[in-house]
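Carbamoyl phosphate synthase small chain, pasting as requested.
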Amino acid sequence: MADPASSSAQPKGATGVLVLADGTAVWGNGFGAVGSAVGEVCFNTAMTGYQEVMTDPSYAAQIVTFTFPHIGNVGTNDEDFESAVEGAVGCIVREEVTPQSNFRSTTEFTDWLAAQGKIGLSGVDTRALTRRIRLSGAPNAVIAHAPDGKFDLHALMARAREWAGLEGMDLAQRVSREKSQDWVGGSWELGSGYGGADSSAKPHVVAIDYGSKDNIFRNLVKAGARVTVVPARTSLADIMAHEPDGVFLSNGPGDPAATGAYAVPVIKALLDADMPLFGICLGHQMLALATGAKTTKMHQGHRGANHPVKRLEDGVVEITSMNHGFAVDADTLPDSVEQTHVSLFDGSNCGIAVKGKQAFGVQYHPEASPGPQDSFYLFERFVGMLG
Ligand SMILES: NC(=O)CC[C@H](N)C(=O)O
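Structure tokens follow.
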């Protein structure tokens, strides 16, 4: 373990630092909120969509290193939120954030980040940090911003070391809604913004919120469904009381295996009842767990907006948006489950279907926001099953 005070001397004027659990100090310029936050450091390779990334609840307890060097230059707006609940705790960027330049922008990224209570660190060699994550895995760390440049590095390192880490951590309950909600937003159009939802639409999808991105619900609406969103701990009886035609299992933060006390048994019961099911990311992982498969923590995870995925039914390659640090172990899939999609980066599982049932999941994000929309057909496929 390096002594943080000696690992790299504080450059003159540095107002921000990332202190890894092993004592490495990465210096830069702090922006956004003042203070410190602990989390796992990951990297995201998307070139656009930083506001959606920072507001995706799946990033709870994570510090995002953007590999694209220019982050913040198109500002932020009131529309590109994926959620109002906590997402990433901080971000690390290469270049200083330049003034906003975009017709949709209403607030500078730096001011927006401060208002969201998230910490930024700029002027960092993000290639070196990303290479380190690729070689040695995603480290736990504290990101800190102090305008006076005063940091207690030993205390920051101790906090990073004491943090339990994402493995075994259940965060889905923490970020889930507390009350159910009739979802009202449709898809976004340039000039008119978000459309409405048809409250009389059929079929009716009950979506379980484990830390969901709003664009998933907008896509379900676009595919023709009426959507009711319910909290992560909703019981089977309460789900059934909504009389769903199908149930959607959302994305979310933390370790899927840590949701076994509440989410997985409900999903298993829904499967046994032949309820049509569609899971995205955490929802996909929990669907796999409900069939008896296992999930594992990945070395570095997949986060970006250009991940190629092969659809095994016809060999078509979908370019997808991804954000996951855990994965379904394909070797543990029972005979009752078919692997439907695989990552062309590392061959990891990216989709499953339960044989003889209308239940499937994907590890990636067909709702995009940010990212390509190649996989929208999955929403149509699911809603089409319920007609
Ligand atoms: N986007 C997600 O739903 C992420 C799922 C899970 N928390 C993971 O990191 O793998």
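Note for the archive: The radius of gyration is 21 Å.
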